[in-house]
Amino acid sequence: MDILTLIDDVIAREGGYSNHPADRGGPTNWGITQAVARDNGFVGDMRALPRATAVAIYRRIYWDQPGYAFVAEMAPSVASELFDTAVNMGVGTATGFLQRALNALNRNQRDYPDLTLDRAIGARTLGALRAFRALRGKAGEAVLLKAIEAMQGERYIALAENRPANEAFLYGWLANRIGWLS
């Protein structure tokens, strides 16, 4: 698993500068919103955001800080999906999807204890993932990935239902975010 390849894939899907009137994120470049760029020290016009700055932000905020590299050691495809989901929906949402899926797949706590849905990767979440992976193997990783993608798809549809302006993005979200690893 190479985080730089994942970042290149995200940037390819996100594209360059955009300021879509329906996008609450406002001006973006390389998929980085102006608010995230500002929070990370960039003060210039978003059209001038260097690609290298975007890469550094992606790596730090959406890979290193949430601990997805630890997930990648056990379940690389799940870590890839968490990274992509975090970029599009936030780290807490992506990690929450993982925790919810692990809880639903633990056979009423016979395989490992339920996780507190704290939306953070920690020792208990990694332990549950390790136990799930040991029990279910590579096929289990594929099922876990499907569960995360199902929650992601449901959230996209809810976003479009709750805010009609988001319908402008729904097709692209479903086409480019769900099952992109396939």
Automatic annotation (TrEMBL):
Domain TtsA-like Glycoside hydrolase family: 8-90
Annotated Peptidoglycan binding domain residues: 96-177
Pfam families registered for this protein in UniProt: Glyco_hydro_108, PG_binding_3
InterPro entries in alphabetical order: Lysozyme-like_dom_sf, Peptidoglycan-bd_3, TtsA-like_GH18_dom
Name this polypeptide is given: Uncharacterized protein
Organism whose genome encodes this protein: Sphingobium xenophagum
